[in-house]
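User: Batch of two.

Assistant: Item 1 of 2:
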Amino acid sequence: MQMAKTVLSLLQGAPAGATALTAPGRRPLTFDGLRGLVTKTHRQLAARGIGPGDRVAIVLPNGPEMASAFLAVASGVSAAPLNPGYKEAEYEFYLSDLKPKLVLVESGSHNPVRSVADRLGIPVAELAVAEDDPAGAFTLWADEAEPTPPSETDEALVLHTSGTTSRPKVVPLSQANLNASANNIVATLKLTPDDHCLNVMPLFHIHGLIAVVLSSAAAGASVCCTPGFNALKFFHWAADEKPSWYSAVPTMHQAILQRAERNADLVAALKLRFVRSSSASLPPPVFMALRETFGCPVIEAYGMTEATHQMASNPLPPGEQKPGFVGMAAGPEIRIRAADHWAATGEEGEVCIRGANVTSGYENNPQANATGFIEGWFRTGDQGFLDDGGYLKITGRIKEIINRGGEKISPLEVDDVLLEHPAVQQCVTFGIPHKILGEEVGVAIVLAEGQALTSGELQSFAEAKLAHFKVPKKILFLPEIPKGATGKVQRIGLAKTLGLGDA
């Protein structure tokens, strides 16, 4: 009988003694240990009435417990990872929207999610980690019961994605979606049990969760779970762990390159099979510098939450890696939609995808689902074209989302917070071109009559309610907001209208 296409099935193939997770200063967790942890977690959740499709929010810092908690939860119920850096107001929104049955935090945590969960009547569980536990091992509680295994259509992961509306959209991803995406990445990167990835990506994003953690587990490969990206520690971690690859966003690659010259001996000792980049466009000069520095292929890929990450990827040798292109279809099918027809080779239009890794639709959002699909194809909102070799070039974003170094920010979410300030009458948040980050957050402000406000005061106000990366770095106080011919504010192009070049 064919095994179900679930997350749990991906974890079954590796030999018992093979290493699954490592962490700096910790002893490794084997696949036998990981499978035991997964089984135990499913039984413990079942004892509290949490089963397939039920959501468990995970609010943990980067590290092995975050990785193992994701695998344990997503393989039995539905994982809802949240940024541990969120403020109370943000947790209030996300927990109210997701309605999880449980929130997981680290032992002794004082994260504001605890007080929000308490107000909303959501139980909170601390991960108990013994002093001598291997990397990623934990216990929730002693109670256990017989769990029900999830089906392919049950939800495995749920994330919010920023949108052009003030309310971020909920993206439910099924067991089959995650299974398909992980297998796509394993095939693209030719991952084997000999591979070891140094993870520097945050594990509340689709990139780190799927491209690194789940794909490695599916291949029987291992992951070193660092506390998060740190350019100062990267080469020392790499020297200790001897990874065969790492995946990062372009800004991280740039920071690593800046440190490479000072760590020439450590760079020379590295034996990377490839370097991967995704979540934002990789500038060709950075591509060339990475290839020259590490002496290995640089694989740029294209992903998004609704596709359970990977859509396109440059191939490994002997295939060609094209700087400035996000590669060929790597799992789902890709077509380009021009104004009223499917585009020919070289013709620019909206990038559309279809495949087993693509979400079936947003939750409780019929309008977004009606506009987000065309003839069964998901519309990415990105603009681009396919060349003669089938390589995809992204030429711009149709949506107004700000992409700050891979962090996606909804302008209207920022607007809503800034408009709460009594001195602000009107505001429009928009992206400003940035040489390193791709885009930075800017805002145009019209003050209420008779009010005075400084940029620093408004930034301090925003810091109390928004994660740091969402706080505008450039604030312009204007007598009125520029509008288009129809009277609508046009966020796209506003930076140019206001004479703002690279930040």
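Item 2 of 2:
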Amino acid sequence: MSHDRKGATHRMTAEVADTGTRGRVEFSTTDPDLAIDYLQSAYGTNMTVSGARGGYVYAHSRLDGGSFAIDEAVMPLRFDIRQDPFNALVIGTIHAGRFERECGGITERFLPGDVFIDAEPTLPATVRMLDIRGQTVMLDLAVLAQVAATSPTRTPGPIRFTGYQPVSPAVAEQWRHTVIYLGEMLGNTEAAAQPLIRGNAARLLAATALTTFPNTAVTALTAQDRHDATTATLRRATAFIEQHAQSDINVADIAAAANVSIRAVQCAFRRHLDTTPMAHLRAVRLDHVHHTLLTADPSRGATVTDIATRWGFYNYTRFAARYRRTYGVNPRHTLHNR
């Protein structure tokens, strides 16, 4: 789509023609008004901007995962933004330039290499940028609440972040690696089309965010959780997993089916199987892949990659390594030597 406005170039496509990447949106303009309008739409918030000038390229690209997105942005010169609450978790990483933000009475400055929460999701903020090139990751708050260990039998309270910087350099590095991994996943057209893979990716991102930044998410086991971590709970949970393995289910769904809290179902799996609900779900899905490979016909176009992707395994190298550890052979051997 293009605009006739002088001095501006505006390109926004649902799919990049030269890469065929599904869910990719790219935008660039030399008109600051167009840039501000676009950013307000992209982040779902009102922004009051001062200091932006025309004649410089403002650029933004997005890999859209549905409930999360990974963005790259170039914001030239120095300008100030007063932004309303995002009502989403937005985490930034600076590649070049300087970034200053005031939110909730806390003022912080960030330089290249820094990872930080742009603002408390429910609070307004004031931002000052100087020749910024950076990355932002936006995550739906519902996914964050889903991953946090709260009871499915009550309405969970909002998660509040008590600090906007990582708790350690090590977890900041883990955040960077996770975003790179998920960016590669979204760049894989076939994988990104699978609801199982997108759902797992969003929950991985939420879990990493909760590990990276200090927050008020409830994680401690209660006496009731320990009492509920029985073999009966385990049976209900594993039966639900078996019946819904090809659906985009999560630990909250498993806990609700077992009629206990998330922490109780996690405790039950750890106590009786020495694993986690999601690890057990991955094992069940791997078993389905194995049985499908045993019956599939490669002469009719069946491939290991297609079958694995259908069950939520998009990274072939990691999938094949897991398969060899479990079954002692390469998955291609299973398919071609039935």
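Residues 1-218 form a domain with the Jelly Rolls fold (CATH 2.60.120.10).
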